[in-house]
Amino acid sequence: MSTTSEPGTAPGPAPERAAPPAAGVRAAHRLFLGRELGIALALLLLLGVTTAVNPRFLSGQGRTDLMLGATILVVLAVGQAIVIITRNVDLSVGSVLGLSAFATGKLFLAMPDAPIVLALLAGVGVGVLCGVVNGALIALARVPALVVTLGTLYVFRGVDYSWAAGQQINAADMPSGFKGMGTADVFGFPALALFAVVVLVAAGFYLRSYRSGRELYAIGSDPAAARLSGIPVGRRVFGALVVSGALAGLAGVLYAARFGTVDAASGTGIELNVVAAVVVGGVAIFGGSGSVYGAALGAVLLSTIGSALPVLHVSPFWQQAVVGALILAAIGMDRALATRVAQRLRGGKARGA
């Protein structure tokens, strides 16, 4: 239908088409928020059942053990979630943790009076260097992340074995102040767990509040479209892998502080638990959705399962079966949620039109 105007005046602007309502986007947010709430409820249910069987499970020392057991996995899961959101994966985190933990021990052997801050910086530096290697191969050379990080998993572990040459660093070789960090508490809260809380809050704030953080979700949703819209995909993916490496390096320092004894095998196999925690926590394995808070909940849930099964008189051999079942259920739920969100979005667009 055409519009008319008075003679000598410019024609008025054509009426704008109503923008599609944001109901679909809000529905997507509610669905994924509900996923994280479901994980939290499952965790509370597990804690309740286990405590009913053994009331000492959540005693003072029991709570401390649970928090310490989840700390390292949470730190690694936060870094892994940032990478998986971009539709990539970092399988080398276990080897980076081991290399960083051994480097921390060697630092204290060479400098017994070294400050703890220097150990933290050294461990994070080792992780950053490993992350740069992964990022350069994936983001710059455009080699698939699964292939690169599977290769660097063995490369970094081989470097660790070659450096260690069979040597084991014991707790007696660590300064008392550093070992005390693994047992100290702040107002009843383990000091090591505070590192995980700080990392989690900082990563969540960055992903939610900064444009570069939100661009990671755009990259994971559709890398080609993100590149066409002007997002520096290579730079963002490179940064995500460097952050994952840095957090794996930090986890290595925390590992050395908690256990005291480190060798070349430290952290072997933990990368699978990390990926499992992230997927169970609601981060879509194909990228573009999820949060670091959900990944942290998944890490706490898996860690609690490992502690609760012996109390419930369940054979520890079933732990891997339970984790595998959770992964399959999480992937199936991701698929169902993605289908439901797509239907809501299509419905919203149709109503807007």
TrEMBL record:
InterPro entries attached to this UniProt entry: ABC_transp_permease
UniProt source species: Plantactinospora soyae
A Pfam match: BPD_transp_2
Its biological purpose: Part of the ABC transporter complex LsrABCD involved in autoinducer 2 (AI-2) import. Probably responsible for the translocation of the substrate across the membrane.
GO molecular function terms listed in the Swiss-Prot or TrEMBL record: transmembrane transporter activity
Protein name (Swiss-Prot/TrEMBL): Autoinducer 2 import system permease protein LsrC
Upper taxonomic lineage: Bacteria, Bacillati, Actinomycetota, Actinomycetes, Micromonosporales
Quaternary structure annotation from Swiss-Prot or TrEMBL: The complex is composed of two ATP-binding proteins (LsrA), two transmembrane proteins (LsrC and LsrD) and a solute-binding protein (LsrB).
UniProt entry keywords in alphabetical sequence: Cell inner membrane, Cell membrane, Membrane, Transmembrane, Transmembrane helix, Transport
